[in-house]
Design goal:
- InterPro entries: Cyt_c_Planctomycete-type (IPR011429), DUF1549 (IPR011444), DUF1553 (IPR022655).
- It comes from Stieleria varia.
- By secondary structure, the chain is an alpha+beta fold.
- Helices cover 42% and strands 10% of the residues.
- The strands form 6 sheets. Strands 4, 6, 7, 9, 10 and 11 form a 6-stranded antiparallel beta sheet that branches. It has a two-stranded antiparallel ribbon with strand order 2-13.
Length: 907
């Protein structure tokens, strides 16, 4: 107490001495003048480990960053704009600092003068030094100097260092059940169990057993069920849902193509670096649905926010923030969004870095767009073709109507005569709009054996003849010995000397005279010899010069019109059926917003213009402010997917490891920064990351390595000695058994009952009676083929739990769920035992058993165990359950098996 009084007295004395210098106009010195003020009034709450509101004033680097909620508290050169000065001079007792009393006027003046002078804080005067935020394992290059060359070597080395060793291998069928759940999310079928046992029997040597295990893994990785299983892990991380969230929570009816893209990409084993690029700039790579990744988060759409400009600016900032968070957490395992209001407190990420990342995606809008894939292009081609055909039919209808009104005659294969007033012409064109159909061959290419054009005069002459010097051209000709273009005006009649168009139903021929002549009559025929009546032009136009002079003469116009109306109706139906292309909620891209550094993250306090640039601690890629929108996203994707990026491969292999062992080598999979957990096996993590890149970024390769390792194959049995050393099994001295996720439980129940619908893709099925809204969702309880699909295909309502399996810790898509929490609650047991879903599925399970096993009770019990647990019941189990089954029926046993730990846990 005495020392505290002496210390305070000394500081007061110093203040009085300093005051005389300040009033005398001396320069304010940080060590002599400013730090004593901080020590007396600020250090108790804002120094060392005490950092109220995130503000630290004993280290220059931290002090200049400021607190959590108010950005830089010291604005060099501008004391009037510095929150520090406002807080120490406030008239509000609630916000006044320090909280135990006001600073003296002299102390306030010292701080004012120091800030106005530029807040000079010399190097080397701080009594403590902050740790270099960049000096962290995850920001350093992936190590390539390894003494171990397999997963098992790394694990065994760490176990030995702690006096531990691996557990014995698990039983073969336990491994089969484990790996089948891990890779497909479904239990092995009895047939798959028997096939595996056969493979083991064939290869009794250790080499043969490895072949049997490898064959199982290859089969599972080739299954479409693999993509469905592992897509769920990914969708948890990126917050996928089929509604927008927030208060209104309206439906996103076109979000599902992104879900289907992820499933397909995983099944294809799309290289992970390509997987990254497709999700950031898929519109340039033929993967339109993939960019749904950018906008999976909650958002308020334009009609759901205030119409005033500040509200619009804030909503836009929030939307961009979600995109930056999605990219940084998912691919980089960093919480970049923490730097929105101030420099990151733990990682080397400045507010400038944050807004530079935001500039990469500043042209992304939360909206639908039409997919531009091959299917869309084909749809557009069909639409264009059918519209042209419909227009042609309409033209033919119009001409038929005109002909009907004139009461004209039908065309004749032997001879057709068109008479009109004399016309001075140099060119005559005969255009065929339609032709009749060959009754047996189905051909409708129109055919003409001779075309005659007569000039006026006492002795009319055929000026169409080639001997007159007339040149003939056509839209196209089907050439053969009998059919040639020169036959149309060679003076010979008959099919063997005719012209045939090369276009079904249509075509034209044009006659150009050597000089202008007056013409008034045209005669043409299909076959003057009268042997061929098919492929006859029936709707045509004759043009002399540029004037349409006459139309074909058709009787029976009503019948022809009826056929054309039917054809037009058919085409219009086809056009209507095509409609618009499949839209996808994958973002629209426009001219990027101008991005500025925002003081304290406030859109109403913009500062300097920021260009697109990557995190300065991890690279130096930058673009100009004028960079095109797509070029920005492409540059970002290439930087993230670069093998030299120290985070990308580490983050993904850690996620894959977590999917197999329940926890990653780093327990915080979306935060590998300074505030995240340390890796349990850092060298193994780097070895896996290196192997990932060397394999061509193959995710299936990583799965194969892990599940074929001895580490993965270990028994899950515990032992007291090992548990005392490593109760959390982080060193992997045994396989860490865990409960199945909600989706696996539900899908497995349907699978063993024989009711699982394996239809893939498309619009999600409904768990509720409505697909969006704030509240009032009523569960759909009745089973149908649609809602018996795998749970990943359900329409996911954000922040609304599914009635039965939502109790099993399903993420609500409000936040990224890189790790699912695992709870044990009474409601889980009640739902799984008494829900209508369980009762209905148990009944279907029982019906399947009776259908496949007959009436024999022992056979039914045996088959129930085979389907549910992948094994036969023991003799004791048969004795225990047989009386119950005999009295209450096999459905009761079915329900009991689906509630057993053996069914619900990865063994």
């Amino acid at each position: 107490m005495i020392s505290r009084v002496l210390f305070s007295f000394t500081l007061v004395a110093v203040m009085l001495w300093v005051a005389s210098g300040v009033w005398a106009g001396q320069r304010v010195d940080f060590v002599r003048d400013v730090r004593p003020v901080f020590e007396l009034h600020c250090y108790p709450c804002h120094a060392g480990t005490e950092q109220e509101s995130g503000l630290r004033l004993d280290v220059r680097e931290a002090a200049m960053v400021g607190g959590d909620n108010h950005g830089p508290d010291i604005v060099p050169g501008k004391s009037s704009e510095s929150p520090l000065i406002r807080m120490i001079t406030s008239d509000d007792d609630e916000s006044l600092m320090p909280p135990d009393g006001r600073m003296s006027d002299v102390e306030v003046e010292i701080l004012r003068k120091w800030i106005d002078a530029g807040a000079p804080w010399p190097d080397g005067v701080d009594r403590v030094q902050l740790k270099d935020k960049r000096d962290h394992w995850s920001f350093k290059p992936v190590s390539t100097e390894m003494h171990a060359t397999s997963i098992d070597e790394f694990i065994e080395e760490r176990l030995a260092a702690n006096g531990l060793e691996m557990s014995p291998p698990a039983d073969d069928l336990i491994w089969l059940r484990r790996v089948t759940f891990d890779l497909t999310g479904l239990p092995p079928t009895p047939e798959e169990v028997r096939d595996f046992q056969d493979l083991l029997a064939i290869g009794s040597s250790s080499c043969g057993m490895r072949d049997a295990y490898t064959a199982v893994v290859d089969r599972l990785l080739a299954s479409p069920r693999y993509g469905e299983r592992w897509a769920q892990h990914w969708l948890d991380v990126v917050r996928y849902a089929d509604t927008h969230g927030f208060e209104v929570n309206t439906e996103r009816p076109n979000a599902w193509p992104y879900r289907d893209y992820v499933i397909d990409a995983l099944n294809r084993d799309t290289p992970y670096d390509q997987f990254i690029k497709e999700q950031i700039v898929g519109d340039a790579l033929g993967r339109d649905a993939a960019t749904g990744f950018l906008i999976t988060a909650s958002v308020l759409l334009p009609g759901q926010i205030g119409k005033d400009e500040p509200s619009i600016r804030l909503a836009r900032q929030d939307a961009l923030d979600e995109i930056v968070n999605n990219i940084s957490q998912t691919f980089l395992g960093l919480s970049v969004g923490c730097a929105r209001c101030h420099d990151h407190k733990f990682d080397p990420i400045s507010a400038r870095d944050y807004y530079a990342m935001q500039a990469f995606v500043a042209g992304v809008e939360y909206a639908d767009r039409e997919m531009a894939g091959e299917e869309t292009q084909e749809r557009k081609r069909k639409l264009s073709s059918w519209r042209a055909m419909s227009q042609a039919v309409q033209t033919r209808l119009d001409r038929l109507i005109q002909q009907g009104e004139a009461g004209v005659q039908k065309t004749d294969a032997k001879e057709n005569v068109e008479r009109f007033e004399p016309i001075q012409a140099r060119v005559v064109r005969f255009t065929i709009h339609d032709a009749n159909l060959h009754p047996s061959l189905g051909l409708i290419e129109p055919c003409i054996d001779e075309f005659e054009i007569f000039a006026t005069g006492d002795e009319p002459r055929n000026v169409a003849l080639a001997t007159f010097g007339t040149k003939v051209t056509a839209s196209g000709s089907r050439e053969s010995a009998a059919h040639k273009l020169q036959h149309i005006n060679d003076g010979q009649y008959g099919n063997s000397h005719s012209w045939m168009s090369d276009t079904k139903g249509r075509g034209w021929v044009q006659f150009e005279f050597p000089e202008t002549v007056a013409v008034n009559r045209i005669v043409w025929s299909r076959d003057r010899l009268g042997r061929f009546q098919d492929r006859l032009p029936t709707v045509y136009t004759i043009e002399a010069g540029l004037t349409i002079e006459t139309l074909s003469r058709i009787a029976g116009v009503s019948a022809a019109a009826k056929d054309l109306h039917a054809e037009k109706a058919r085409l219009e139906k086809e056009i209507s059926g095509l409609g618009k292309g499949q839209p996808v909620f994958a973002g629209k891209f426009r001219q990027p917003d101008e991005i500025r550094l925002l003081l304290r993250g406030d859109p109403e306090q913009p500062r300097e213009l920021i260009s697109p640039a990557v995190l300065t601690a991890l690279g130096d890629v930058s673009l100009s402010p004028e960079a095109e929108e797509q070029d920005r996203r492409r540059a970002l994707a290439q930087w993230i997917a670069n093998p030299q990026n120290p985070l990308t491969a580490r983050v993904m292999v850690n996620r894959i490891w977590q999917g197999h062992f329940g926890a990653g080598l780093v327990e915080t999979p979306s935060d590998l920064g300074n505030n995240g957990a340390q890796p349990t096996h850092p060298q193994l993590l780097d070895w896996l990351a290196g192997e990932f890149v060397r394999s061509g970024w193959s995710m299936k390769h990583m799965h194969r390595m892990i599940v074929l390792s001895r580490t993965y194959r270990q028994s899950a049995e515990s032992n007291d000695r090992a548990a005392e050393i490593d109760a959390g099994v982080r060193l992997l001295w045994r396989f860490p058994s865990r409960r199945l996720e909600a989706e696996c439980i539900r899908d497995s129940m349907l699978a063993i009952s024989g009711k699982l619908n394996l239809q893939m893709g498309g619009r999600g099925f409904d768990f509720f009676d409505k697909r969006g809204g704030l509240s009032g969702f009523q569960p759909v309880e009745e089973l149908s083929p649609a809602n018996q699909r795998r749970m990943i295909y359900a329409h996911k309502v954000r922040r609304e739990s599914e009635a039965v399996f939502g109790a099993f810790d399903c993420p609500d898509a409000g936040q990224s769920a890189a790790v699912r929490r695992v709870s044990t609650t009474p409601i889980q047991a009640l739902n799984l035992l008494n829900s209508r879903f369980t009762v209905d599925v148990s009944r279907s399970f029982a019906e399947r058993i009776e259908r496949e096993s007959g009436d024999d009770l022992a056979s039914q019990i045996k088959h129930a165990y085979e389907l549910a647990l992948g094994r036969l019941p023991s003799a004791d189990e048969v004795v225990d359950v047989e009386p119950m089954v005999r009295e209450f029926g096999i459905a009761v046993l079915c329900r009991a098996l689906m509630n057993s730990n053996e069914f619900l846990f990865v063994p």
